[in-house]
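User: Teach me something about this protein's shape.
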Amino acid sequence: MNKQDIAQTITDGIIKQLEAGTAPWVKPWHSKPNEGAPHNPASGTYYRGANFIWLSMLQSAGAFGTSDKWLTYKQAQDKGAQVVKGAKGVQVIFYKPLQVQGALNPTTGQHDSKVIPMIKTYTVFNADFIEGLPVDEVIEAPKTEFQTIEECEDFIKLSGATIQHGGNSAHYAPASDYIQLPAREDFKSKQDYYATALHELSHWTGHKSRIDRDFSKSKRWGDSAYAFEELVAELGAAMLCAHLKIDGQLQHASYVASWLKVLKQDSKAILKAGAEAQKILDYLVKVEEVEQEELQAA
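Assistant: First, the predicted structure itself:
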């Protein structure tokens, strides 16, 4: 792959993510505890420039691995390790100063020399897909104990929602009717964990057995149904955060571009979204009140 191809690949990847409304290197949880800037433990250097952006984006997305350590195949072998069979490598750029012969200098009678940047590409693999690395190359600092916010814990528990923890994704699965969240300790703060949980809980309320909220059936929203549901869930999460008096980074702030499109198409969309978000708050608060009354009566 030449330098034009790799530059285009990196550029296209970033543009694709940004056009999708996502800055993929920013999210309210860590892919791994103490995840840092992408670096090469074999050379002891941190990746710079476009390589930093590219590898940060990829380790955040997780498809190529979530470790902040990236090595070439040979570097892994030199450490007695082995890249897992079938693992996908990532192309990065290497800059090296190259001294070349210049034009003849009529004064000195010698050819002047000049230094130009030589650009090469090479393939690196994420440490998640390298077996046998020395322990000191992959060891992670122990996770800090997660400090719960009891009011939030009780509120979410009383909803009756099924929540699973693990992996590198936060989402609600309508077909199976459960919420998936990364491990609590992977979040950057306890507030971010609860804000994300409340966002997904807002989606959870839309199930047909609860509020029965499905904008895909409405001609009014059409292709904007997904973005509108995200807007409703985000507003619902904001209301829930206010209700529970927490301040966290809401998970889907990256949908701003899609929301703007929806709002520009229909000036009344924000009124509808606000009304739907209020239904989420009212529904969950009502469930909380009913559950508490039943507990007190028991």
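Now, about its shape. The chain has a mean pLDDT of 81. DSSP finds nine helices and ten strands in the chain. If you'd like, I can walk through any region in more detail.
User: That's plenty for now, thanks!
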